[in-house]
Specification:
homodimer, globular, alpha/beta, five-stranded parallel beta sheet, 21 helices, 21 strands, Aldehyde Dehydrogenase, Chain A, domain 2, Aldehyde Dehydrogenase, Chain A, domain 1
């Protein structure tokens, strides 16, 4: 059965491997939530499936449960009322042990075939997933569909493709014949068995539970490891559905479904740190705060730890040949999902003497004001605005907006909007502040949410220096730059390479610095404090398995 | 120049890449110290070059020196009298900074081309290196030549080949065109720049300074990192020559030679731990004690840490169809370089009721005695014995032999032999003890040196269980097994896979469990406490560099 699955998805795998190597645009999972791609009734069916989940226990066959947990609240203003099995950890790991043995022995084609089938079925569930992601993360429907569904599936597939590329490079065996001059050669046969590390732990976040969770989940699974998925207590449902699908495929393929399990907890409990120190856990994939990520890196010594943490994303404005396009693009980047993206910009560096554009010189204040105006325009119509803004995931973000106001001078204040469909939804427009000079003590911390700073620098060289230092010391997932001057762009490119951050140059159209496309954009570099790994590359997968060799004379 | 070097060695690189994938026998560097391979005068020249090094400062152009250090003593009984530049660390790293920038910008073909040229020139210096290795490690000449020269060069080349395989998979750029239905597609061009982690630190050992040092050195160098080589104070010369050659090649290729530097210290000073915590150091390759290796893993948070530490290597004897061959093979394994190999066996498990052989039943005592007799025979003629035994690297090993005597019943005692050529040489034959039952508190620590235990177990199942537990808890680089029973061999294979250790089966001829051949045998698995990495595989190289991308609209 599992061999059948490998054959079934072999063509997809080959395409994915090729896409990783060439890095042009490619996606096998349609990103448009259209009836043509997903079927006439897909939206209605997905919505109904989501609604059927509400106000009841989430059925999951897994062993070792000790009651039910779950207190998810939709950022659109209602309790989901879903409970999930709470695991008793000793028994959970005891149940996973024999499941992991069967999985280990199945070998690379089974691991990859099952992983690809899970992704295929997740794709079919993209509408249900979209509603689950929307009502846990607060993303607007379109983003919830795309980032929570096909784009997350792309990222999962990408990890499987990288895993396969490393797995297939290990031969099953070898014949070794060493010449001995006039004597007979020494002849040996060797066998190479790929063995997984053990159990992988995926620690999910509350904003992109699938997009950030799938790379680690599928990288571990496709390299033969059993996996415990530990969702953020605020966004359990998307990963619970994922685990449900994974278990269904495992069972059908003849495996013990406890190869993939869910470990849910209530917001009041701590579970991740306990799980992370279990001796059975040998791989950890974490998305969350710098504090927790750094703790894992320094304390979970028994495991390989892959972290995506916080950072301060920055934009350097030097000059532009499309002022309106630049301003609109930046404003949209700040507005999209209310800045609750790990890739959203925060610090915008503008020379204090202003910039040159085709429309003439714009002062620092004019540039800041233009970005502010563009935000206002984007969010003027609440019905349209909420489709970009989504809702605020948690009250912590609301509090952060309140606190941030004191830091600079308000260019555009954050507004509360009423959602036409969900009157209780937490909707906020972006807060844009300006600072007339660089004050590192204020700007070099992450203000996660719709909070950004227009910061006056001495000149572009100063902007570059501040940005490079910011990346090195505080981490960043993105750096964006606007300049018409090739020499300046070269300096910025150099700074990005030195500091180790992905750079977007002169984005004035339909691509935003927040966006990272699987198979083409590396998400994170692993070279600055915001993340110790990139999604995805060889380093993300190659150490999730080991090779045990045996040799004997022929 | 560096591009020329890449072209020059391109064919060698392609062969090495292929060898890593197919894992049959391959070596480009002749292992026989023969005039035909290395030239009529190669031995004399190498010896003269070594002797010319003695009793004077080692000339090295590197910056930031603060006096001279070095107190190496040949295990064959004379002081080398060589001193090396002692680095002033702040100045050393300051000097390496600009060197590292030039190296980073040179790119993968330059990194790999220069690395291959260094290996090529090291091969030409194999005789000089042999004497340097012999008179620091105590290895006999033949082993010093092979393991210190061509086999170490093989391991270095293997690391370069793996590095190249990962580097070449990153395209320089990509064209990304995303369809937009009826609208024009979005078109972007992307650039991917490979950037090194920073500075690599290689911490050498005193027994195989080049064999164990080259994989990390070349893996870091070939991925664009500058490297500080920190030899063990007891075996500086082999790595000093290596650094000298590397600097010579770098200079000729137009690079600042401070891309590769030497950091030597006297035995009374501590330097490795200070170097390891330098913020500039982002990669550490360590060979040495478990205590120091674990300390690095847990404290050098700023770096990727690759360790090879101590372990307890084990042999399971169940049955054999070649008793004499088995006994001779094991005795040789214990005698070779006086057991001072990280791969040398220590614990030999034999069922208390003995084993079945073609010559009939042999009791536990008879098996132990036969191994002992074989050791005696192998070491009976001092002139021949010293060519297998080599000398004892340091007095710590001598003391360990004395202490070990108390642990079990002596089967064969360790003898002091006189070296015919070097009267002051520290020569000891193996000590073989027997224990009539398993006492984990005694046998589950590494007795590095010519110390081994014949241990009576209840039966082979007990032997397997003890061996598996030993690997899991204490680590091992090798496991060896003798059985004529396929079902037993399958159980042992299973145990090896569960515990994560390389297995050799029924070695009765000219291959010994101690030996690990580049391009075919993975040295270490990275899956048990003896080592957190394998030499070499993708995981050993893939995280030594990162990718910085930039993107802009077309």
């Amino acid at each position: 059965m599992s061999h059948f699955l490998f054959e079934r998805h072999h063509n997809l795998l080959q395409q994915a491997v090729k896409a990783c190597a060439t890095r042009g645009y490619w996606s096998p999972f349609p990103e448009a939530p259209s009836p043509r791609a997903y079927g006439e009734t897909a939206n209605d069916d997905g919505k109904a499936a989501f609604e059927a989940r509400l106000n009841r226990p989430f059925g999951l066959s897994q062993a070792a449960t000790a009651g039910q947990v779950g207190k998810e609240v939709s950022p659109y203003g209602f309790e989901l009322g879903i409970t999930y099995p709470k695991p008793e950890l000793d028994r959970l790991f005891a149940a996973m042990q024999p499941a992991a043995v069967g999985w280990r022995k199945a070998g690379p084609e089974a691991w990859v075939g099952v992983s690809l089938e899970i992704l295929h079925r997740l794709n079919q569930r993209s509408f249900e997933m979209a509603y689950a992601v929307m009502h846990t993360t607060g993303q607007a429907f379109m983003m919830a569909f795309q980032a929570g569904g096909p784009h997350a599936q792309d990222r999962g597939l990408e990890a499987v493709a990288y895993a396969w590329e490393e797995l297939r490079r290990i031969p099953n065996g070898a014949y070794w014949e060493k010449p001995q001059g006039k004597h007979d050669p020494i002849k040996m046969k060797k066998k190479y068995t790929i063995v997984p590390r053990g159990i992988g732990l995926v620690i999910g976040c509350c904003t992109f539970p699938t997009w950030n969770g799938y790379p680690g989940l599928f990288a571990s699974l496709a390299t033969g490891n059993a996996v415990v998925v530990k969702p953020h207590p605020g966004a359990i449902l998307p990963l619970a559905i994922t685990v449900e699908v994974a278990r269904e495929v495992l069972l059908e393929a003849g495996f013990d479904p406890d190869v993939v399990t869910l470990a849910s907890n209530d917001p009041s409990e701590r579970m991740a740190s306990t799980l992370a120190l279990r001796p059975e856990v040998r791989l950890i994939d974490f998305t969350g705060s710098s504090q927790n990520g750094t703790w894992l890196e320094r304390n979970a010594h028994q495991a390989q730890v892959f972290t995506e943490k916080a950072g301060v994303n920055q934009i350097i404005i030097d000059s532009t040949d499309d002022f309106k396009g630049m301003v609109r693009n930046i404003a949209f980047s700040l507005t999209l999902y209310s800045g609750q993206m790990c890739t959203a910009p925060q610090n915008i560096y503008i020379p204090k003497d202003g910039i040159v554009t085709p429309e003439g010189h714009f002062s620092f204040n004019q540039v800041a004001a233009a970005i502010g105006d563009s935000i206002v325009k984007l969010t003027a119509d609440p019905a349209k605005a909420v489709e970009v803004l989504g809702a605020i995931q948690n009250v912590g973000v609301i509090e952060r907006i309140e606190q941030a106001r004191a830091i600079g001078k308000v260019v555009v204040d954050s507004q509360t909007l009423a959602h036409p469909q969900f009157p209780e939804a937490r909707i906020r427009t972006p807060l844009l502040l300006k600072m007339n000079s660089v004050d590192e003590s204020k700007i070099m911390q992450e203000f996660f949410g719709p909070i950004s700073f227009a910061i006056a620098t001495n000149d572009t060289a100063h902007s570059i220096a501040i940005a490079e230092k910011g990346v090195r010391e505080h981490g960043a997932l993105t750096l964006s730059a606007y300049s018409t001057n090739d020499a300046v762009l070269e300096q910025i490119q150099d700074a990005a390479e030195r500091a180790g951050v992905a750079l977007s140059i002169n984005l004035t159209g339909a691509v935003f610095v927040n966006q990272s496309a699987a198979f083409s954009d590396y998400h994170g570099t692993g070279a600055n404090p915001a993340a110790n790994a990139a999604l995805s590359d060889s380093a993300f997968v190659a150490n999730r398995f080991r090779v045990v060799q045996s040799r004997t004379h022929v």
